[in-house]
From TrEMBL:
Keywords: Heme, Iron, Membrane, Metal-binding, Transmembrane, Transmembrane helix. Its main location: membrane. It holds the Pfam family Sdh_cyt. CDD domains: SQR_TypeA_SdhD_like. InterPro entries: SQR/QFR_C/D, SuccDH_FuR_B_TM-su. This is Succinate dehydrogenase membrane anchor subunit. The chain crosses the membrane at residues 27-50, 70-94, 106-129. GO terms for molecular function: metal ion binding.
Length: 149
């Protein structure tokens, strides 16, 4: 009885011509990782070190930040980069461990659906945020809302 051993590093799927998505996914992970380090540490520094620190974080603090276009863009970039970075990492894990093509397709589909849904919901949350909701007590609103109290 003879046993045949596959050649090491033999791809599960044959190599196709065209865009090398694995290469671009690898490059994206490196570039987005560096950008995320800057975005996350900037976010943490502003929220925890500037001003009164963590005890100052409340609705008014977040509302004040989300009225500034700079922080809207900052938070949007952080959201998109982090979600796509995480989804790309999960895609890599699926490719490494899902041996059946059907299983891989189902997992990739679930990953795409969940990533797109979270990107849409997160972006809507950032851009549709109302810092001065009607009917809220004046003591809970930021000072720029102009509520007569």
């Amino acid at each position: 009885m003879s046993v045949t051993i596959e050649v090491p590093n033999t791809p599960v799927r044959p190599h196709k011509r065209g865009v090398n998505w694995e290469k671009w996914g690898w490059i994206y992970m490196r570039v987005s990782g560096i950008a995320l380090i800057v975005l996350i540490f900037g976010h943490l520094f502003v929220n925890l070190m500037v001003g009164d620190g963590v005890k100052a974080i409340d609705f008014a603090f977040v509302a004040g930040k989300l009225t500034n276009p700079f922080w809207i863009v900052w938070d949007t970039a952080m959201l998109w980069l982090a979600l796509i970075h995480g989804a790309n990492g999960m895609r890599t894990i699926v490719n490494d461990y899902a041996t059946r093509e059907r299983t891989r397709m189902i997992l990739h589909g679930a990953l795409v659906v969940s990533t797109v849904a979270l990107l849409i919901l997160g972006t809507l949350t950032i851009y549709a945020f109302d810092p001065c909701p009607a009917g809220s007590p004046a003591e809970h609103l930021p000072s720029f809302c102009g509520v007569a109290g």
